[in-house]
Write a structure and sequence with these properties.
homodimer; mainly alpha; two-stranded antiparallel sheet; 19 helices; 62% helix; 2% strand; globular; disordered N terminus; binds potassium ion; membrane (chains A, B)
């Protein structure tokens, strides 16, 4: 009897991987907030206030990009570099960083640590995880380096060398990590570059590659034929492609003659601007068109795209492309009267479909609750603006119709929490809140009861 | 080979129960629309136009209550009686009516017809279904009769006898069938009776009893102790109770000092008005407060309640109380780390949970697509108004922030289709669209592929 009690106590004090993940992220945010709260972080020489620091640090670590003060205008270079580092840490995931540290100091990685990493990276197997982590770091720095170089070529035409280098690195990291922070100033994001081909293509590539997930990148780097790629890669590529093209076509048609967005641009500008609209809801958060001037239909369409977000094990947020893909395939299979959900000559397991359904429903519940709270605390604002802001935070997108800095204190805290939940994954939070899985064997199991639904 | 071909052809021409259900409802709507399109249906002596007739007939048969022309002001007594009959037919379900006809003319009911009824009533067993149908009709007419009598006692104080009788019957049927049509005139719904106890209590009871579902009513009519009731009844009663009390408390707090709604009412009026707000989203569609004057938070809260709606096998719409209950219980069981979802000492089967998830996701997809279409066709209107209208149509609720009559032609057709889908059930539509369930035995089954979601 006493033994059992002790075991329970020990189990209660031992954190599960999901809890460690949540606490780790929270610690980094807190550390970042303390740094950003220092007077030397702000150009005014006065602290920005702790709620604003928490908000900014959360937004950076959760690679969201929502800002209460403009990153380019308000923060000193110290502040901007803190933000850059928070983005990089958040983007790679603190577990990968921990692996790097362990790797550098030669410490052996225990099975327990590997399990934690598995949770963080949402990977299939423990074996090869350390190798994968090295690949992740190497690949990330290579890609970000290339991106920074090309962006530097553009920025050096406008700014002096040190600033152009910082701008190149900052925007490359911010794009690859799908963070959406920018240093352009005055909340303009990338609107000055709406019809600049170089900036557009580099940012597109960084966003899309960063949002595909490391597993897909690794798979693609083997340069196999499409048919030899894994099912996961095929799904990610197809769905990402469909989402981008749909977003592009939708924006092009709906905004074509909107004088505040595409209307006054050349055809080149219209095409580049629409393409950016199709890509940025893959939770990047940059924008080249003024978001608040979009038509209502475009705003709602972007809400849907933001809710979907990027792909698993990437720096992107949202419920993920594959979740939506699996759900749509599953509904198609019901309509076709098939027992199995099939794609690319493979069958998708029932528990994957159930997990996808759970993720979608929990996501929608979360968005509904947050929108509800904000529609009380921000009663003076427009519903669509609030709804957009909520989904943007949940999907860690960072696009806004302009209300972020005008949020009430409670509003800022709720949005911070939503960014956090969106980043570490609602399911992880649910598991973190939960106790250890109970072993039902030997316990009395209730008889099944009949319930009608729907 | 030829034999197989022929079999397939026969199977293709044979309608499945779901298809018969959909076609049956559609036929009744068409018949209703033809009658309402007649000049004698309208007080102006001129036809209301076919799209408006289709809209009104769909709204009546689908017991929604959204109206493009005010029921009390525009239609003649002929038109109002057509609407009353469409509501009664829709509410009871045309399959129950068909059973009545079969019962009256003494025709034996085939197994095939019983299966169709099963689909319509969403029942567990075929046996006893004919008996149940008789009970349904008997119980419905008794309850509606009692309701009509009490409402008559109120209306006779204001109108002459024939009108008071029609008003009593019409509003009793409309409330029990959760139809939400009213004859009060000038689009006021029941606002003149916001602080009238008799009208409030009678309408509450009719709405709640009608929205619980026939199985629950039957179960309750045996007058057992709560613990002896079926799991389904317990769930319906608990969740309905929670939803009503939550809606009541929310309205009372949020609208307490809103001068356009509860603000200028006495405490009695405030309590009655809030209670009505808690009950009417159980897809009734009546209102005693001006909906467009509610605070933003109240509007969004009602959207959520409308989406949930009433209980299965009732006259109510929405994704249903039990669906939401099962989902919440399932999420709680995940948090608690339990394998089984349990409630009232019973375990809920995995496939019920999956079905609930599918219903919720398909419902949200449908609402998202319709809102998307309307935000293009109704670009001049407010997003919250459009979203509210869409969910109201999907949940066959009938509440509106005032845009129904101002909808564009496409908007009216899309809302009609949404009411239809909401009534016959999105899943039924999906199955109706689908082919016969394929037998996978003997076919090649694809190997399972790995996909990460979320
Ligand atoms: K972002
Ligand atoms: K209704």
């Amino acid at each position: 009897m006493i033994t059992i009690e002790q075991n329970n106590t020990i189990n209660n004090y031992r954190l599960n991987p999901a809890q460690i993940l949540v606490l780790g992220f929270a610690s980094i945010i807190l550390l970042g907030a303390i740094l950003l709260n220092l007077p030397i972080a702000s150009k005014t020489g006065e602290s920005v206030g702790f709620v604003n620091s928490i908000f900014t640090a959360t937004s950076a670590v959760c690679v969201t990009g929502l800002v209460v003060v403009d990153t380019g205008t308000y923060w000193t270079m110290f502040g901007q570099i803190v933000i850059l580092m928070l983005i990089q840490i958040g983007g790679l995931g603190f577990m990968t960083m921990a692996t790097l540290v362990a790797f550098v100091i030669g410490k052996r990685i225990s099975l327990r640590e590997r399990l934690i990493m598995q949770e963080a990276l949402n990977q299939f197997n423990i074996s090869g995880l350390v190798r994968l982590t090295k690949h992740i770091l190497f690949t990330t720095f290579i890609i970000e380096g290339i991106g920074a170089f090309f962006l530097y070529l553009k920025f050096i035409q406008e700014y002096e060398a040190p600033k152009a280098i910082l701008f190149g690195i900052f925007h490359s990291v911010s794009a690859f990590c799908n963070a959406g922070f920018d240093l352009i100033g005055e909340g303009r994001s990338l609107t000055p570059y709406v019809d600049d081909i170089l900036v557009n293509v580099i940012i597109w590539l960084l966003i899309v590659i960063g949002g595909m997930g490391f597993t897909v990148i690794m798979d693609l780097l083997t340069f196999k034929k499409f048919s030899r790629l894994t099912l996961h890669t095929k799904l990610v590529l197809s769905i990402t492609g469909i989402l981008i093209l749909t977003g592009f076509a939708f924006s092009f048609i709906v905004e074509f003659n909107n004088p505040d967005t595409l209307g006054n641009l050349s055809i080149k500008g219209k095409l580049l601007g629409s393409m950016f609209q199709g890509i940025t809801p893959r939770t990047a958060g940059f924008n080249t068109l003024p978001m608040d001037k979009l038509r209502m239909a475009s705003k709602f369409f972007i809400i849907i795209l933001m809710f979907i977000g990027g792909s698993p094990s990437s720096t992107a947020g949202g419920i993920k492309t594959t979740t939506v893909g699996v759900l749509i395939l599953s509904i198609i299979s019901i309509i076709r009267g098939k027992n199995d959900t099939e794609v690319f000559n493979r069958r998708i397991a029932k528990d994957v479909i159930n997990r996808a359904l759970a993720i979608a429903v929990i996501g929608m519940l979360w968005v509904a609750v947050v929108t509800m709270i904000l529609s009380i605390t921000e009663a003076n604002k427009d519903f669509l603006d609030i709804f957009f802001e909520t989904v943007s935070a949940f999907g860690t997108v960072g696009l806004s119709l302009g209300i972020t800095s005008k949020l009430s204190l409670i509003g800022k805290l709720v949005i911070s929490l939503t960014m956090f939940a969106g980043r570490v994954g609602t399911l992880t939070i649910v598991f973190a809140l939960g106790r250890k899985q109970q072993n039902n064997k030997g316990l009395i199991r209730y008889p099944e009861g009949k319930v009608m639904v729907g």
